[in-house]
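Backbone-to-sequence.
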């Protein structure tokens, strides 16, 4: 995912100049272009979005667009891949900055998953293992899951997909986020100590003992989201001490102890829905990316909305979609030049679509 340096005239743009140039190019393109903005993007990017949402919701919005030939996905690379998988071959998906990846998605490569699959298969002969990948993963892993009878999941539907997988197999290999897998399985009544085992791809046999593999129903990949690992039980205690009326809601990519200490947990869409549905005057402390939290506070001034993390670190890879990169991508498109097209090759595209469609059929 190489990103060429921006031309000097884009690198030196002020925020105001970038906004003017984006607006002009956007107007020239009209209905030919749909801009998709993930919830974690900064406001200077979200202001241009025709649709905003989580990664799957935005990909589904793209798939429902029958006329627009171009999409600019203001998110990270795996999201643009999902949009390309779900849209038609004659539609084009563009990522403004190719260096906008995802550290969690990078924690599981196809070669690592293939090796783990082979080792688990040898160690559990005669046992049916179903692979499940979080949508926060590369297209190659979605294709792997599609080929091996598994499904994708989101943070919204992980419970439904995991229930389906356990009903259709003896065990589940869940990747790349251990915390979403652990929190989801625990919410279904599985014991984190007895029923789950952590698989470390950097260790022989994942660091698991034969007895661990025999007793466990869910094998959790050792991956995580750097942003959501910043939230702690101590932060929750501090928020409640500062405001005894506060409600704490966190994303299920947080650790199990944080999820259990919170009042609620859920996807970005659930977090937004809970805060918007709350009564005026209510107070919320949220464990997720800061741009979403700040936007909720701005949109709901009659409620108190704060981030659990006092350092309020943004997602660094999402932050690479800077207005200057959007200016460069959209002006090139308006001039008839497609830059940074994200295209998933066959047969990866078809196999990944199977995994995504299976998820949609389940949930």
């Amino acid at each position: 995912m190489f990103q060429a340096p921006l031309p000097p005239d884009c690198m030196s743009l002020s925020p105001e100049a970038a906004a003017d140039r984006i607006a002009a190019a956007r107007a020239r393109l009209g209905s030919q272009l749909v801009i998709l903005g993930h919830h974690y993007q900064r406001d200077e990017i979200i202001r241009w979005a025709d649709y905003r949402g989580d990664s799957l919701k935005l990909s589904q919005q793209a798939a429902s667009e029958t006329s627009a030939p171009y999409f600019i996905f203001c998110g990270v690379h795996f999201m643009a891949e999902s949009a390309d998988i779900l849209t038609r071959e004659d539609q084009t998906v563009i990522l403004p900055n190719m260096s906008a990846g995802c550290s969690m998605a990078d924690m599981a490569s196809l070669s690592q998953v293939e090796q783990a699959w082979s080792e688990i298969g040898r160690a559990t002969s005669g046992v049916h293992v179903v692979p499940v990948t979080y949508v926060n993963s590369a297209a190659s892993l979605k294709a792997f899951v599609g080929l091996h009878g598994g499904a994708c999941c989101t943070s919204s539907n992980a419970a439904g997909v995991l229930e389906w997988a356990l009903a259709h197999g003896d065990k589940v290999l869940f990747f790349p986020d251990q915390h979403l897998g652990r929190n989801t399985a625990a919410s279904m009544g599985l014991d984190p100590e007895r029923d789950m085992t952590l698989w470390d791809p950097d260790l022989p046999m994942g660091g698991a003992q034969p007895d661990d593999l025999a007793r466990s129903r869910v094998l959790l990949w050792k991956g995580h989201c750097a942003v959501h690992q910043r939230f702690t039980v101590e932060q929750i205690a501090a928020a409640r001490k500062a405001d005894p009326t506060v409600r704490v809601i966190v994303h299920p990519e947080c650790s199990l102890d944080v999820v259990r200490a919170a009042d609620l947990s859920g996807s970005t869409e659930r977090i937004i829905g809970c805060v918007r549905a709350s009564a005026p005057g209510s107070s919320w402390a949220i464990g997720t990316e800061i741009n979403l939290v700040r936007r909720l506070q701005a949109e709901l001034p009659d409620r108190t909305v704060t981030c659990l993390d006092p350092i309020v670190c943004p997602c660094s890879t999402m932050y690479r979609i800077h207005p200057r990169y959007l200016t460069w991508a959209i002006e090139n498109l308006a001039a008839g030049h497609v830059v940074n097209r994200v295209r998933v090759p066959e047969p990866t595209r078809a196999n990944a679509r199977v995994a995504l469609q299976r998820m949609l059929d389940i949930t």
